[in-house]
Automatic annotation (TrEMBL):
Record-linked CDD domains: PBP2_NikA_DppA_OppA_like
InterPro entries: Peptide/Ni-bd, SBP_5, SBP_5_dom
Species of the source: Streptomyces sparsogenes DSM 40356
Name the record gives this protein: Extracellular solute-binding protein
Domain of life: Bacteria
GO molecular function terms noted in the UniProt entry: peptide transmembrane transporter activity
Protein keywords: Signal
Length: 510
């Protein structure tokens, strides 16, 4: 059914599709060429925070900390980051850290960065914070991060706040500008997603081994696969199982794999008015019985993912199993009919490249829903299009969103706060996750996230995760493995579970 489904839906009138594009010209000696599956709209991350972008963004701008191997916190611009009181962290900037224009990184820059991130409407990153800290300067290098309530993973959260000079920072994504990273931008085209980077001569750390970086947006996976086979691209990210199988064992190409911490979801629209069928958790649960997740993992994702067994990936610290997705189409039909939703219409939207094999997954889901009498339709958006407006409820109506949610801290409380900590106040500015607003759950998450004792915190988080599962937020969800392909001339790509790597540590041979 899955294979037939793709053919049967090939003539559907989907939304705008990304055109076929590919790189031209192989990278020269000393230059690495990266092919991204999503358009890199900017080298800032206030809104543009998809996994592979992090590799490039952190090569230009840096944070106080970063998430490294084993999802541990590593110091970057800071050489000290320590909780000295339950609501106070003491931080010291590393001696001698400078921007590419030669000016020093200052305490004021950190304070301004927090204000600029807070000023972004609909920011994914700010939703991760239970509250934003304030900065209290101690001396030229030392400051306190103060919060009203304890934020015991603040060192992990601050890994996502990239620091820029205060005078040049703005409450929006910065397309160019000055950073403290190992590379500087030499050319940028946010429209095409093409960037050129060169070594930052003022870099405060160890000089990168690669002199130049070329970043290309190549939406068609087949074009990226051909380009890495031919040597026109050196690294391609987030490839599908089919592409990985094509590249396996080829001369000159190697695959890098690791377990992932990203959850991919078919998330319900929680902005439906009272009385709408999808506002009823029993209807949402009934629809989930129509999805054969085992078949999707086996036949579409070819074993490169696992069905979700919780509301966040189980690899995260503090995550627990909350339930499993059960395939029972007969039960789906029966429950939908009993709830008066036997003739339900469902519109599924997603952005191309949101996760590997996205179109194949969606077409198979479409057929599964139709098999239980649901009148389902698909609408696909181009990368860089206006899907954000749809997600925020500012444009067209939809019922299910195909979406991936990264966890850039390695801790369950971060993703729980970002996805399920919505409040009526946040919904006024559309800063909730698809309208998910359950005040009691938000309060329990805030309480758990502020707990300093790790054992007590994990116990509270486990209980609230089970409460979230009972609201049935997803039609289906899965956790993909992280896979990229590289030319063998590219060495020391240490792929992390958060689907990024340190570009400054990569080197070329040949």
């Amino acid at each position: 059914m899955l294979r037939l489904g793709a053919g049967a839906t090939a003539g559907l009138a989907l939304g705008p599709l990304a055109g076929c594009a590919g790189p031209t010209g192989a990278p020269g000696p000393g230059t690495i060429s990266l092919g991204l599956n999503r358009s890199l709209v900017s080298l800032d991350n206030k809104l543009n925070q998809f996994d592979a972008a992090v590799t490039v963004q952190r090569a230009v701008r840096q944070a106080l900390t970063r998430i490294g191997r084993g999802l541990t916190t590593e110091l970057v611009l800071a050489d000290r980051f320590e909780m000295t009181e339950p609501t106070r962290w003491t931080v010291r900037l590393r001696d001698g850290v400078r921007y590419s224009d030669g000016t020093p990184v200052t305490v004021k820059d950190v304070a301004t960065a927090l204000k600029m991130y807070a000023g972004v409407n609909g920011s994914f990153l700010i939703g991760l914070f239970p509250e934003l800290p304030t900065v209290e300067k101690v001396d030229e290098r030392t400051f306190h991060l103060r919060t009203e309530h304890p934020v015991p993973i603040l060192d992990q959260l601050m890994a996502n706040i990239l620091i820029s000079p205060a005078a040049k920072n703005r409450p929006e994504e910065l397309t160019g500008g000055v950073g403290s990273g190992p590379y500087v931008v030499t050319s940028a085209n946010s429209g095409t997603g093409e960037y050129s980077l060169a070594v930052n001569p003022e870099y405060w750390g160890r000089r990168p081994a690669i002199e130049k970086v070329r970043v290309r947006f190549v939406p068609e996976e087949s074009s990226r696969v051909v380009a890495v086979r031919s040597g026109e691209l050196d690294v391609i990210d987030t490839i599908t199982p089919d592409s990985a199988e094509q590249l396996r064992g080829l001369p000159g190409v190697r695959l890098e794999r690791t377990s992932g911490t990203r959850v991919n979801q078919l998330f319900f629209n929680f902005r439906k008015p009272r009385g709408h069928p999808l506002a009823d958790p029993r209807v949402r649960e009934a629809l989930s019985y129509a999805i054969d997740g085992e078949a999707l993992v086996r036949d579409v994702l070819t074993g490169s993912a696992q069905q979700a067994e919780g509301v966040v990936p189980l690899a995260l610290r503090g995550a627990v199993r909350t339930g499993s997705y059960v395939y029972d189409p007969g039960k789906a039909r029966k429950k939908l009919a009993a709830l008066g939703a036997g003739d339900l219409k469902v519109r599924i939207i997603w952005e191309s490249g949101e996760f590997p094999a996205d179109t194949s997954v969606m077409e198979a889901v479409l057929e599964m829903l139709r098999a239980v009498g649901v009148r389902a339709s698909l609408q696909q958006f181009q990368p860089g299009g206006d899907i954000l407006q749809w997600r925020q409820g500012r444009r067209g109506d939809w019922d299910v969103l195909g979406n991936g949610y990264s966890v850039p801290t390695g801790h369950a409380s971060t993703s729980l706060q970002g996805m399920y900590g919505g409040t009526p106040e946040k919904e006024k500015t559309r800063d909730t996750y698809q309208g998910y607003v359950f005040p009691e759950i938000a309060a329990r998450l805030a309480d758990a996230s502020a707990e300093s004792d790790e054992k007590t915190r994990d116990k509270k988080l486990a209980a609230v995760q089970k409460a979230i599962w009972d609201t049935r937020p997803c039609l289906w969800a899965f956790i993909p493995n992280v896979v990229l392909a590289r030319r063998t001339r590219v060495k020391d790509v240490r792929l992390l579970q958060v689907n990024s790597y340190d570009l400054a540590a990569v080197r070329l041979e040949g």
